[in-house]
């Protein structure tokens, strides 16, 4: 692989999108979630086929408490890459927050965590979140 930098390879929209994604990752690591979301959005505008960027932007939206936007990005990512674990886990996290307003969503959150574990049985975060979502879904169903 060629080093990043000049040359005719690095000028296409996909290369520019990958660069924005990398900058977004740096911003996210620095906990600059709004800036990261802007960079991921720019990457999506350059090349909407990079499923990881939607999952990354969903992580920003979770941190920013923009749960509906996070959920939408998770669904978009899943449509492009159905087995991308992080999209299912982040969907569950968004649904857990949205379920505080609409308890019927706890069951959807449980399904998202279950799907996460189907894809990644060792996922500790999903393993600890699933029983909470399941219990809340059952409690909601009994109300």
Automatic annotation (TrEMBL):
<dbReference type="GO" id="GO:0016020">
    <property type="term" value="C:membrane"/>
</dbReference>
<dbReference type="GO" id="GO:0006620">
    <property type="term" value="P:post-translational protein targeting to endoplasmic reticulum membrane"/>
</dbReference>
<dbReference type="InterPro" id="IPR019734">
    <property type="entry name" value="TPR_rpt"/>
</dbReference>
<dbReference type="GO" id="GO:0072380">
    <property type="term" value="C:TRC complex"/>
</dbReference>
<keyword id="KW-0677">Repeat</keyword>
<dbReference type="GO" id="GO:0060090">
    <property type="term" value="F:molecular adaptor activity"/>
</dbReference>
<dbReference type="InterPro" id="IPR011990">
    <property type="entry name" value="TPR-like_helical_dom_sf"/>
</dbReference>
<keyword id="KW-0802">TPR repeat</keyword>
<protein>
    <submittedName>
        <fullName>Uncharacterized protein</fullName>
    </submittedName>
</protein>
<dbReference type="InterPro" id="IPR047150">
    <property type="entry name" value="SGT"/>
</dbReference>
């Amino acid at each position: 692989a060629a080093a990043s930098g000049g040359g005719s390879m690095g000028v296409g929209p996909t290369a520019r999108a990958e660069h924005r994604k990398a900058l977004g990752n740096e911003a996210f690591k620095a906990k600059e979630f709004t800036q990261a979301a802007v960079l991921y959005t720019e990457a999506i505008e350059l090349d909407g086929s990079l499923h990881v960027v939607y999952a990354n932007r969903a992580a920003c939206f979770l941190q920013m408490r923009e749960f509906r936007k996070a959920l939408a990005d998770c669904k978009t990512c899943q449509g492009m890459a159905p087995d991308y674990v992080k999209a299912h886990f982040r969907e569950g996290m968004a649904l857990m927050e949205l379920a505080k307003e609409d308890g019927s969503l706890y069951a959807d959150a449980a399904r998202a965590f279950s799907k996460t574990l189907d894809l990644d049985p060792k996922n500790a975060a999903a393993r600890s979140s699933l029983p909470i979502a399941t219990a809340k879904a059952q409690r909601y169903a009994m109300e």
